[in-house]
Amino acid sequence: xxxxxxxxxxxxxxxxxxxxxxxxxxxxxxxxxxxxxxxxxxxxxxxxxxxxxxxxxx
Length: 58
Description:
This protein is 26% helix and 21% strand. By secondary structure, the chain is of the alpha+beta class. It has a single domain, classed as 2-Layer Sandwich (Alpha-Beta Plaits). Strand 2 and strand 3 form a beta hairpin.
């Protein structure tokens, strides 16, 4: 699974609150690549919850 954060991220923190094993937010979201394996379900949930659709999951 590949996770990309687009520049449209507003840094709201929704992704981190849903899946903190994979997402970290300061000014904008960042992906912790080593946390993706085993957390695919919460990654998809976070992507669906993103208010600006900035999380792309491949």
